[in-house]
Amino acid sequence: MFFQFIHRDHFQNENFTKKLALGLGEIFEYIAWMKTGFLGTGNMAEALIAGLIKSKTLKPKEIFGFDLDTTKLKKIQKKYRIQTCNTATELALKSGTLVLSVKPQNMAEALRTIQATINSKHLLVSIAAGLSTDTISLMAGKQIRLVRVMPNTPALVGTGAAGFYANKNCNPKDKKRVQKIFESVGIAVEMKNEDDLDSVTGLSGSGPAYVYAFAEALITGAAECGLDEPTAKKLALQTLMGAAKLMLQSKDTPSELMAKVASKGGTTEAGLKILETQNFRQTVIDCVKAATQRAKELKQIM
User: Fold this and answer.
1) Which of 18, 75, 155, 213 has the greatest number of beta carbons closer than 10 A?
2) pLDDT in tens, 235-254
3) pTM of the model
């Protein structure tokens, strides 16, 4: 179809044929690059698959999956109609972008199975916690285009917050590709320094658990004040969601929004005074710092 619009005399021009070959090569490489494979189809992989399809970033026929757990793989295939592969090697052959969604302790073995298949045309994306790009490259045994991502569990409901770092072999298109994948389930922010992913881990990676702890305390506090637990839970979770949404949409800082709620001598001020006396703010800061430090330690162990 394409060639019917090109006059035959054009093919006698050496520069034209070279440019045509280069252009077609880039098109075919882009088509291959768009095909995304998931090595491992656990919870995070499923969230990404669902997000990619729901956002129409990819069609099911452009998504491939492989998992040693064939029952899990069949379930994913039936639910999302993606393409499945019988081996990790087959997955690598059919995918241009390969998401390494395996546990850190299984990464070395997973990479060994595809080592002979992956090449410079592949874009590898790791969501394994604690494994640096250098460590993964050593496991792969070759120079690879690699992006390391720290996602979080709210991606399971399409509201994730991920930080990512691309190694020196990646190009701008690779970064945009990864950003698009993870923006299908929330937001994705590029880190210029890989060590900053430790801070991302301490903040958004571990952060949901801090929020759950705060929510649990709100619910318990309301129950001890007389509300039945289902009502307390319903109101507490809506309050957290509403406050987060307001912070996202408002130009005011959290402190300014807090001041608008806390009237002098009012109920909110009374509650905030307790948080202040119990050193709430510093406790949360220390919480993020402790998680970040642990991320650094685990990276050294890995």
Assistant:
1) 155
2) 999 999 999 999 999 999 99
3) 0.87
